[in-house]
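Recall that a protein's primary structure is simply its ordered list of amino acids. Everything else, from secondary elements to tertiary packing, is in principle encoded there. The following example makes that idea concrete.
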Amino acid sequence: MPDLRRVRTIALVVLAISVVLTGLGYGVNNVGLPPVFDLDGEWVVPSVWSCALLAAAAAATWAARGDLGRATVPVAALFAFMALDELASAHERLESAVGVDWQLLYAPVVLAGGVAWLLMLRDLRRVPVAAACWVLGAGAWFVAQVLEKLEWDGDVQRPGYFAKMYVEEFLEMGGSTLFLVSMLCVIVAVRGRAGCGAA
C-alpha cells in the first residue's frame, strides 16, 4: 500500500495530467489540435482518462471496504457504473433516445448514491484529510453537473458553452481524483502506514 508521500505524489501527477488534458481540449477548439483531445468527444483521450479515474476510485473504494462501513459497496458500484457510462457516453445516448434530460433520468441513482456517500462520510470523520477530500470531490462533481445543465438548452449549446464545458470537464476529473485520494488516505491511515490526518 502507498504511504502518505506516495498518495500526495499520485494526487499531484493525476491532477497535472487532468490540467494538461483540459489545456489540450481547449487547443482542439481554438488552435486546431487533433480531435482525439476533444473534451466533449467519445472514445477520445479525455473520456478514457475520466473513465480510468472513476474506475480507480471504484477500485480504491472497494479496497477500503474492510476499513469502512458497508456503504463502500454501493459507492464502489456507483463509481464503476459512472466509469462505464463515461466511456460509452450512455447518458447522452439515453437522453437522445427517450427525449428526457439524463440528469432527471439518473436522479434515483444519484439519490441512492448520495445516501451511501453520507454514510461513508460518517465513517470518514476519523480520517480528517480523507473526509475533506470526500466532501470536496462531491462538491466538484456537483458544480460540474450544474455547469453542464447551464451549457445546453435541449440539444442547443447556450452562449458561453465552451468556457463552461472546460471547467465542467476538469471538475469531473478533479472530483474523481479527490474520491480516489480520499480512499487511499483511508487505506494508509487505518492500516497504520501513515498518519494522513488520522485522529
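The chain has one domain: 4-190. The CA atoms of residues 65 and 72 lie 5 Å apart.
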